[in-house]
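Following up on my earlier thread - several people asked me to post the actual chain instead of describing it. Fair enough. Here it is, all 273 residues.
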Amino acid sequence: MKIKFWGTRGSIPTPGPATNKYGGNTACVEVLAAGQRLIFDMGSGARGLGFELLKQQPITAHVFFSHMHHDHNQGLPFFVPCFIPGNTLFLYGQEKGKQRLDEQLNQLFEYPYFPVPLRNMPANMEFLTLREGQRVKISPELSVSNRKLNHPDECFGYRVEAVENGEKKVFAYCTDTEHFSVPDWKVKDLAKEADVFVYDAQYTDEEYPQKVGWGHSTWSEGVKLAQAAGAKRLILFHHDPLHDDAKVAQMEAACKAAFPESAAAFEGLEIEI
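Reply from S.P.:
Thanks for posting it. Predicted structure:
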């Protein structure tokens, strides 16, 4: 299993010299597992991924949306493989207010917000609306399950289980979640014995009391969950747009002191398990 981070920021893109190290693009993570390509969220980081995939046409990818806030879908209209015939995208996400996933995404592409309607995209797109707890069996060796997280308007966290060369490998993606209970049993379930556990660490402990109800968490809660779940490696994710590289590095150092097998995600980070 190979994991690559194309966007690590939360809320809004923050390009510039103060964020060069960890990156300013919003959420997008690529996972290659059991011969399949999975993509988690389509924030602005998806644009760079799309250009990279031009070298590998035609492509098939399974795209899992945590939710429909802008920082998790704003890269889809600029994901170049959508415009190329022969590519196939399977898109997964939850129902929102009786709207299927395709209905939600069609709004993102409608006039006057974007010049090309989603239905006119040349790539083949298949939309699958998920219910909580549903397990998607992509192949006999690969499955993706979900749980609802604590975030305004709800959000899905995901667990990937893959068997490669007879060995089970687990990737957990739990961003945009708030720690109303510790440990949060749904996050703990997703992260159980995960090889890599990606967690929303937008705030410091000192910042969090002013952000209660905003739907985000802290690195220290990530440590508690990683320990409770028996996760092997913790990756801090969804960096606050107000945090420059120095601040994220400070949070990363504090997290490493508490849980040595941890790191702050940065654009271009690659992990192989």
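The mean pLDDT is 96. That should answer part of your original question.
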